[in-house]
Amino acid sequence: xxEININEFxxxxxxxxxxENEDNSKEINILQNVFKGSFITEVQNEGNFEQxxxxxxxxxxxxxxxxxxxxxxxxxxxxxxxxxxxxxxxKLKKFHLFNKECKNPSDEKIIYKLGKILLFTYRKxxxxxxxxxxxxxxxxxxxxxxxIRCGQMILSRGLYLMLKSKGLxxxxxxxxxVPLFNEYPIxxxxxxxxFRGMIDKYNNIKSKDNNEYKIKEFFPxxxxxxxxxxxxxMERTAGEWFSxxxxxxxxxxxxEHFDLFKNPNFDVKILTFQSFIDMPTLLNECFIEKAxxxxxxxxxxxxxxxxxxxxxxxxxxxxxxxxxxxxxxxYKGIKELFQLKSCIGIIGGKTRLAYYxxxxxxxENSLLYxxxxxxxxxxxxxxxxxxxxxxxxxxxxxxxxxxxxxxxSIGFCFTKYKEFLELFHFWQKAEKDEKFTKILxxxxxxxxxxxxxxxxxxxxxxYIEKDEDDF
Length: 471
What we know:
Helix content: 25-40%
Shape: globular
Largest sheet: 10 strands, mixed
Distance between the termini: 71 Å
């Protein structure tokens, strides 16, 4: 009879704990190096940087934050001029662009709305990035970074909607979203005050060295260089394929370590879930637990605790349906995801080709997608003109769902409590349907959710657009 040595198990636990600590230390070191390496500085009072500093708050050229929707639409008709017409891979009679039903592809309203869904494609001639394994350098991402481009599209969609919710007009929201993803370093004046948390954090680090520095420019938090550098945590680097799981987790790590959204007026949490949505985690991240406030009905009651909405959220759920093909019984559920106003799309595709899905064709089991597999020159500076020229969609494509890869990531965003509540009601409703449950990755934990009486009715789905420019 073999004796069990308890010390052997203790030694295994110690080794596993040591390995976990080493992995955490490695991740922290990588993130710190990426963060510090992103900023290009010069010593204070040298050069003429002070002149550029005076332009930081000059956003009136881009559009007044209080502009109403009609004025914005008149000002931004450039989208229609660039688009001209909606080019499809085939004729469609009826389709859905997110939750918007479209019967006429040449409708100017549809063209205008599609023009506000940013397109990110391959780029060339950008500052060289290095593969940390082989030391090979790249100045283009053609044919190895399509999933990252799709990730940039879905994240930019969420950030654009959040900027809109804070009062920025269309032109301002697009202008301040794109620089966060550009390949070249950007100047401080191109960063909206909402995103200054990363600069404050950098200045705090430098102040500990008793050195005075001025930030001349910096690499954007979601640019190719930053994403490839952070990819080292998941053992991915320049020139290698990034999966949807890796890219969405990279977004989360960057936003947390860079303090990009640490602003009381623009507090955003990026959350990623593997296979299921853990509601307690979501509540702990986007809500504040406190005693019941009789003057505030915007709360959730979970296990005897009260949670009040405090932060906007972008949620990614990484799921897998089937082995080789997505089973037919899931098609309806996938389509219904796009009927949610809070859905910001799906990133997935087919073998080795990534696409950003933004809607579906009602007449057949096909999804509408944007294609990143086009190579364009990089821009050293982001302007409204090159946003219109390179980031406004010229066409959308169709892919049958039986051709899709079985693994993909679903994106949601909510900017206020009512939007979260609509989304939660949808999750609750879907939880009763086993096929829906698997698509959404809902947790199967026994949790008793209780709403305040004012919020007991199911307000989902409601898709009335009060502001025509809200899309």
